[in-house]
Amino acid sequence: MKKKFGNKDVWIAYGLILPALLVFAIFMFYPFFYTVYLSFFDWNMIKPVKEFIGLANYKALFADPLMPLVIKNTVEYILILLVLNCVAPYVLAFVLSFVIKRGRGFYKGAFFLPSVISLVVGSILYLWVLNPVSGPAAILAEFLGINIPIWSKTQGLVIVVLSIITTWKIFGYNFIVIFGGVSGVPQEIIEAAKIDNVPLYKIFFDIVLPMSSATGVYIFIMTIVQGLQYVFTPVKVVTQGGPDNASSNIIYNIYQEGFVFYHTGYASAMSIVAMVLFIVLLVIEFRYVEKGIYYEN
Amino acid sequence: MRIESNLKWHILLILALFISLMPIVFAVSTSFKELSEAYSNVLGIIPDKPTLSNYLRIFQELPLNKITFNTLVVAATVTIFKVITSVMAAYAFVYFDFKGKNLLYFILISTIFIPFTMTMIPNYLIISQIGLRNNIMGVILPQLSDATGIFLIRQAMRSIPMPLIEAARLEAAGNFQIMANIVLPLVKPAVISTGIMFFINSWNEYVWPVLILKDTTNYTLPLALQLFVSSEGGTDFCLAMAVSVVTMIIPLGLYLIFQKYIINTFTSSGVKG
Amino acid sequence: MKKNILKAVAVGLMSAVLLTGCGKSDTGNEQAGQGEKVKIEYWHVNAETQGGKTVQELVDNFNAQSKDVEVVARYNPDMYKGLMQNLQAEAAAGKSPAVVQVGWAFLDYFSNNFSYVPPQKVVDDYFPQDKAFLQDNFLPNVMDLAKNNKGEQVGIPYSLSTPVLYINKDLLRQAGLDENGPKTWEDLIKFSDTIKEKTGKYGFYMQEPADNWAQQALLESNGARMISDGKASFASEDGIKAYQAYADMVTKTKSALHISWDQGVQSFVNGDVGMLYTTIAQRANVQKGAKFDVAAISSPAWAGKPKRLPAGGCFLAITAQDEKQQKAAWEFLKYLYSVESMAAWTKGTGYVPPRKDVADAENGLKSFLEENQMMKAATSQMDSVVPWASFPGDAGLQAEQMLLDARDKILSGDVSAHDALTQTQNQINALLK
Q1: How many C-beta atoms surround the C-beta of residue C238 within 10 A?
Q2: Which InterPro entries does the record match to this protein (chain C) (predicted)?
C-alpha cells in the first residue's frame, strides 16, 4: 500500500512536518508539561518564589466540596449538548437525506449560518433576546400567556439555556458532518426498505445509524470535548459561573481558580484531572474512528 | 399523504430555522434604532425611526477601522500559516513512511483534546517573556498550534485513489511534482474550506486576545464589543448591536460566497462509514 | 486562481505584520530620552458607555498641553475586578502601569499585593510646592476612604458614587402611591408589594453585579457591619434582618426581581419594574432609554437609623516604579483633579466629584447640577458615605465571590438569610486566618 521511498525521503517527511511541530512544541507541549509542573506548587503568578507542596493540590481537589457540583454540572452540560448537537442533527440529517425531497441546499446553508458568528456576539444577542422580563422572547411568550422563568438565576435551567446558546453555534457544523455520513448510506438500501414498508424509525435505527457510525462517534466525541470548551464563552459573558456555581463546569472552574482567584497551582492540578478524562475519550476515538473506517487506500 | 407528511417536516424545519436566525435579525434591526426605541419597540423589526447614529458613533469613538484591520491581519496570518503547515504535514503523514509516524500523528491529534485552560497560563507567561504582550504577534502565535487542519486535510488526501499516485511515480515524477500537480488540485476544495474555517474561527476568537491585548488600538473586533457592554454605566444595546453587526459581516460574507465549498468539504470530511 | 490572489495578499499582509509586529515591543513604560516625553500608562475601567469617551478626552487634552509627559490610557474590561486581575497578570510579567484606578472593595488587597507609592510621598519628594494640595482640596472623610486598615493613605479618591433609587413615577401613580417615592426601606417594601398587586409589574430591583456594594448599604444602614476588627461580621441580627426583609420581597411576595444586573436595568428602563436601586453612575443610561416619567431620589434608610452608603467608584493610585514615571504620574493627577477636569468627569460619568468646591464652581458643575435634578439624589447624601468594605489579605478576591454565592442562595429561596450569612461569615473568617 504505502510505498517506501528510501531513507532520504524520510528526511523530507520530517522537514514537511517540522514547522507545525515547532509551533506545537512551543505553544502546546511545553505549556502542557509546565502546567503539570505547576500543579505541584502553591503560587499566585506574582510571588517570586513558588512553594512546593507536592500532592497537596490534588488532595485538596478531591476534598473540595465544590468539585462534586462542578462535575455534576459538567455531566449535565455534556448530556444536554449531546442531545442537542448529536442526536438532533442526526435526526435532521436523516430527514433531510431521506424524507424530504426539496430544499436541501437551502436548509443546509441556513442551518450552518450561525456557526460562522462569534460566540461572544451570540451570547450578547441571546442576553438581549432572552431577557425574561423585557426581551423579545418574553414579550412573545406573554402573548401566549406564558411567563418565562428567570433562567439566569435558576439552577438547572441556566445550564440548559447556556447549552442552547452554545448549540446555536455548533449545531450547524455537527449537522453538516453528520449529513455527510448519513447521506453516504446508499439510496438503494433505503428505497428497498421503504418498498418493504419498513417504518421510518426502524430504517433510522437499523440501517442508517450503524452504517454511519464512524461519523457518529466522531461527532459524539467532538461534541463533548469542543462543546465544553465552547460553553466557556457564554458562561463567562452571561453568568460568570453563577448563580452560586450552578452554571460552572470544570473548564470554567479551572479558569476561575486560575485567573480570578490566582490559585495557579490548584488550577493546574484541576486541568490535569480534566485532561485525564479527555484522554479516555481520545482512546475511544482512535479505536473506533481511525480503525473502523473505509478509505479509498 | 406523502405530500402532507413532508409538509409537516418542512414546517418544523422552518420553525427551527426561524428560532436560530431570529437573533441575527434582531441584532441588525436594533442596530438601526435609537436607544429609547430599542426599549419601547422591542419586537419591531423595521425601526419606526431608523438611524445611522449608532454606526457613526462607534466609528467615531473607537478606532474601529484599525480594529477591523487588526482582526483581518490576525485572521489572515493564522490562516495562511496553518493551511501551509497542515498541507505539508498531512502530505508527509499520508505519502511517507517513517518510524514513529503513527505515534507522532496520535500525539498531534491528541492535542485537540487539551482544554485551552491548560495551556493558557504558561502561554501567557511565555508571550510576556518574549515581550509580545499587547502585540498582534502575541495573539497570532499560540493560535498556530491547531491540529484540526492536519486532520481534515489528511482525510481529504486519503480519499485520493492510490493508483493515481502510483501511476505518477511510475513516470518518475518527483515528490514536489506529485504534490503540486496531482494532490493539491484534488484537495483544493478541502484546503479552501479549511482555510475559510480557520479564518472565521480566528476572526471570532475572544478568550485568548482578551488576555493579551491591552491597548484599544490593538484590539480585535470581538474585544471591541465588550467596550460597549458595561454593567456600571449600563449597556447601550444599540451600540453593542452595531458593533456585533460589523463583527458579523465579514464571516457571513465569506460564508455566503464560499458556501458550496465549505458545506461540501465538511460533508465529505466526516468519516464515511 | 482565487487561491493565488489570496496567497499574494496574504504574503503582503504577513510581511507587513512581521515588520510592525517585530519592531514594536511591549509598549508602555519606556524611558524617554532627553527632550522626549515620558510615556506613562493610565489604567481605567470606563467602557464607552460609561465615561470611556471622557477618559480619552481628558487624556488627549492633557497630552496636548504637557511638555514632558504623554499618557496612554488602557481600558480594562470587567470593571475593577478585571483591572485587579490584569494588574496581577501584568506584575507576573514584571511590569506595571503608572496610574491605576482601584475599586474600593480592593483597597486592602491592592495595598497588600502590589507595589505602589503614596501620592503624598511623591509630592513631598519632588513637588514641595504642591505640599498642601491634597489637604486643601479634599474633605478628611473623603480622603479617609482611600486609607487602608493600617491607616496608610494609599491613593486619592477619584470616582465617587452612591446608590440611589430610580423611580418610575408613572407606575407609582398607577398604583396609587406617592409619586415622590419611599423614604424608608420599610416603606419601600410596602410600595413594591403594592405595585405588584395593583399593576402586575415588578415593584423593585436591587442591582446584582459581581460585588456586594448595594447589599452592604442595605445591611449597614440597619446597623450591621461587614467587617469589624479585621473579621467578617455581617451575620449579625441587624444584618440578617435586613437581608431577609429584602429576600422576602423576592421569594415570598414576589414583588422584587432577582436577575442579572444588565437584564434588571433593562427591565426597569423598559417600564417593567417600578423602582431600581443602583449606582448614580447609571443615570445617563437610564435617562436616555426611559420613555416614562423617571426620577432619582436618595437612598432609603431604615426607620430611625442613620444611612450608611458605601462609596462606589475608585481611587487613583500611583504604581509607577521609578522617579521619572512617578513625577509624570503626579503631573497627570494634578490635571485630572483640576476643577474643569473634575466637572467634565462628572458630566461624562455621573460620578460625584471627590474634590471640594467643584459642585459650586462656575467653571465646575454649578449650572449642570441646576439642570440635572437626578444628580442631586447623589450629591445630597455625601455625608452618609462610608468606606466600601474590603476584605484584607490574599483571600480578598475569594471572599467577594463567597458573598456573591450567598446572595444567590438567599434570593433563590433555598437558604434563609440567617443560615447563608452565618455560614459565609465563618467560611470567610477561616480564609482570613
Answers
A1: 17
A2: Bact_solute-bd_prot1 (IPR050490), SBP (IPR006059)
Give the end of a domain, one of C386, C405, C424: C386
Residues of C in contact with A134 (CB under 8 A): 263, 266-267, 270, 272
Residues in chain A with CB shorter than 8 Å from the CB of C88 are: 44-46, 262
CB-closest option in A139, A177, A296 to B161: A296
pLDDT digits (tens, 9 = 90+) for A239-277: 888 788 888 888 899 888 887 787 888 888 998 888 887
Determine whether the interchain pair B254/A5 forms a contact, defined as Cβ–Cβ distance below 8 Å: no
Residues B73 and B183 in one domain: yes
Q: Mark whether C42 and C85 lie in a shared domain.
A: yes
- Same domain as C137, residue C72: yes
Residue of chain B whose Cα is closest to the Cα of C92: B125
Do B101 and B32 share a structural domain? Answer: no
C-alpha cell at C274: 417600578
DSSP assignment of C378-432:
HHTTGGGEEPPP---STTHHHHHHHHHHHHHHHHTTSS-HHHHHHHHHHHHHHHH
Record: contact C289-B229, CB cut-off 8 A: no
| Cβ-based neighbours of B13, under 8 Å, separated by 6 or more | A92, A95, A100, A107
pLDDT confidence tier of residue B267, bands split at 50, 70 and 90: low
**Antiparallel, parallel or unpaired: β C156-161 and C312-318:** antiparallel
What residues make up the domain containing C353? 31-161+312-386
Per-residue pLDDT tens for B189-238? 778 878 888 888 888 888 888 778 877 778 888 888 877 776 565 677 88
**Domain A63-291: which topology?**
MetI-like fold (1.10.3720)
Report CB contact under 8 Å: C349, B233: yes
The DSSP secondary structure of C177-191, one letter per residue, reads --TT--SBHHHHHHH
Q: Mind telling me how many Å the CA of C14 is from chain B's nearest CA? A: 6
Helix (H, G, I), strand (E, B) or coil at C232: strand
Percent of chain A with pLDDT over 90: 2
B80 touches chain C (CB under 8 A): yes
Within 234-273 of B, beta carbons closer than 8 Å to A belong to: 237, 240-241, 244, 247-248, 251-252, 254-255, 259, 262-263, 266-273
In 3-state terms, what secondary structure has residue C69? strand
Low-confidence ranges of chain C (pLDDT < 50): 1-34
The ipTM estimated for the assembled molecules is 0.78
